[in-house]
Amino acid sequence: xxxxxxxxxxxxxxxxxxxxxxxxxxxxxxxxxxxxxxxxxxxxxxxxxxxxxxxxxxxxxxxxxxxxxxxxxxxxxxxxxxxxxxxxxxxxxxxxxxxxxxxxxxxxxxxxxxxxxxxxxxxxxxxxxxxxxxxxxxxxxxxxxxxxxxxxxxxxxxxxxxxxxxxxxxxxxxxxxxxxxxxxxxxxxxxxxxxxxxxxxxxxxxxxxxxxxxxxxxxxxxxxxx
Length: 226
Prior knowledge:
The protein has 226 residues and is mostly helical. The protein is built from nine helices and no strands. It has helices at residues 3-27, 34-61, 63-67, 74-78, 87-97, 103-135, 139-148, 151-189, 193-225. Helix 1 (3-27) packs antiparallel against helix 2, helix 1 crosses helix 9 (193-225) and helix 5 (87-97) crosses helix 9 (193-225). The longest helix has 39 residues, at 151-189. The relative contact order is 0.15.
């Protein structure tokens, strides 16, 4: 098990503990102080921030691994958008868990949705260009040089191209992670403490449910193969 997988297993245990705390806070939200609920929300957001910081450290060592993470189930990997959750999912969970948004909150939510879609499209375009570069020069030229010239010269060129590819992926990943973390912060800031707690309960339940389903599906597949 890699160092990140060890971190992730511990992070998931803490995630379950935070979900229990959030659900307890949700049940007594009508009698809790807003400042206390917001303190819990801040601690949960810090928990997610720790995950992204650790993932960023892994990406600096092997960005390709982050784009196809071995610590996720096949179901979780199928749902990834630039190595993480799609921002659109957050808005869907808000609509399902926080139906009591005020008119002002709905206006702000609509504006944030449009801003996020613009940034999301820009990142999709950026990633598409990276994919195109893999099949087009200079990577094709590097492969041809590798076959035409001495092995040392070709290997050096191929390594240089791979370095450029890794750098481009690291950049788009950093931008996507920034979008995700900034979006989460903006969402909870426009909510009351009780609303933010309900939203984070929905996020935690969705995440753990998908992981549970993924583990069950992967286990069934292994049984069939055996």
